[in-house]
Amino acid sequence: MKPASVSKKQMEKIHPAIPEAYNQYQQGRITRREFLRFATLLGMSAALAACAAPAAEQPTATQAPAAAPAVKRGGTFTRGMELQKIDHPARFSWVQQSNVVAHVAEYLTQTGPDNITRPYLLEKWEASEDLKTWTLFLRKGVKFNNGDELTADDVMFNFEQWLNPDVGSSMLSLLSYLRGMQDVEKVDEYTVRLHLQEPNIGVPEHLFHYPANIMHRSFEGDFIKQPIGTGGFTLAEYSEAERAVLKRRNDYWKMGADGQPLPYLDEIIYVSLAKDAAVAAMQAGQIDCMYQPRAADWTALKDNPKFKVLTASTAVTTVLRMRVDVEPWTDVRVRNALKMCQDREKILQLAYYGQGDLGIDAHVAPIHPAYCDKPIPKYDPERAKALLAEAGYPDGIKVTLATKNDLEEPEYAQALKEMAAPAGIDITLDITTPDGYWSRWTEVDLGMTSWTHRPLDTMVLPLGYFGDAEGKPVEWNETRWVDQEFQDLVRQAERTLDVEARRQIMCKVEDIFMERGPIGIAYWKAVWNIVPKKFQNIDAHPTEYDLLHEVWIDESAA
């Protein structure tokens, strides 16, 4: 059936910038995905945007497809995943924490596996023409698991938490366009309005940042003691480093395909176990799947007929980062010399079995909507050696590289050690457990840090590479690098609607990263969700979020 058409007048009513983006899409200047992302961020529903830019028609089948099987209720989903300390969700630093809590305490928006952001606890949002005023409309009738209705007072409470420096949330730097609660207005019981100091296209995506779980207005700071949320599960058990159990609610606000409240599953269990034990546990049926499979795990399981392998391209990466306030990394020539010691294709093959995209030493990935395509830098140890000599190190340098051992960092680090030796860079490896690294990740002089996916090209940059109003590095700025021209360009990109125009700005941002930045990025990782074939409505999410409310079990597919 041909989809209904959408007029430009309808688009303009939602936001004046959408018709121009539609013109660019029709002219082939931006892709369908870029148009969908752009239009939905400005408040157009994903369904309406898809009608405006329908996917290419598929050939007509000679036989009607078989009817989809009816959903079935019940059963348990068990994932092996590190279970970390949980207290205040606004302070979360890792997706693992939010994967547990998000089934109980949800988000205002949700960015799906397709990288499109949709309203969730919000019914919709509206952006002003200049992108400085965002109006958030809550769904009515959504209940917390204590029986209270979700209202604007709860949203206001959460913004107070995010914007309070004493709480210590990374949301503070992400929402830096808000001076404080004076820029957050309660319009009525179901409406909140944000008055931005600077325009920003990313507001809906920022509201799905993993520390942005919506807590009840009575929350006192410890989720384990006070697990109140709007989600379809309740927290039945949480033992740090051991086990978490989530039980189905019977009065969840969202309905399933069978007309009854979601979720379909009765129970979700997370089991904390070492990654080296996870593959064997999956093969033995002790767990259904594992969080964040490594390339070696993918290799071990990808041909097993019991499982299906779901894949997503991402902006997940391991960042080689240098602290610019510590010698010898204060000298840009030394930083660039180390970057030149990356044979990226070999590193990707050795560390990640070739499953990803090559990087350019800028924290902007090919999957990002305004990524600026540039040639992949060549491995050049001779030029690196010359740069070290120019910087006053004719005999080379000795440095220590710190990282963790639960993913592919040891293979990456060993490869870099060998590749840097011809340039005169003698690297000693300091590889520890994840706890041993994360307890000091911002303090080591030279490190390898894993960063998760963010759907928008500008989103990670204020978190990891900005200074505050006084010019001091923000909380997650592990390199201590603060560059005013870089920040000004990122802010310009944040308020630039036109995707092509934003890409031109991102070209300059990427150049600054490559010319004087503090990081090396050899590759961007593909991620996998490897699950038994019986699980339906499940996918691989770029940020490795567990979105399990609509997952169900079909034993006949096993």
Describe this structure in words.
With 558 residues, the chain is an alpha+beta fold. It folds into 3 domains: 45 residues, no CATH class; 263 residues, Periplasmic binding protein-like II (D-Maltodextrin-Binding Protein, domain 2); 213 residues, Dipeptide-binding Protein, Domain 3 (Dipeptide-binding Protein, domain 3). The protein is built from 18 helices and 20 strands. The strands form 6 sheets. Strands 8-9-10-1-11 form a 5-stranded mixed β-sheet, covered by helices on one side. A hairpin with a 5-residue loop joins strand 4 and strand 5. About 1% of the residues have low confidence.
| Radius of gyration from the alpha-carbon trace, in angstroms | 24 Å
CATH fold call of the largest domain = D-Maltodextrin-Binding Protein, domain 2
Shape: globular
Highest-level CATH class of the largest domain: Alpha Beta
Order of strands across the biggest sheet? 8-9-10-1-11
CATH architecture of the largest domain: 3-Layer(aba) Sandwich
What is the number of helices?
18
Helical fraction? 25-40%
User: Would you report the number of β strands?
Assistant: 20
Q: Into how many domains do the coordinates divide?
A: 3
CATH homologous superfamily name of the largest domain?
Periplasmic binding protein-like II
Label the structural class. Answer: alpha+beta
Beta-strand content bin:
15-25%
Distance between the termini: 33 Å
Major beta sheet summary: 5 strands, mixed
Instruction: Estimate the mean pLDDT confidence.
Output: 93
Point out poorly predicted stretches. 58-62
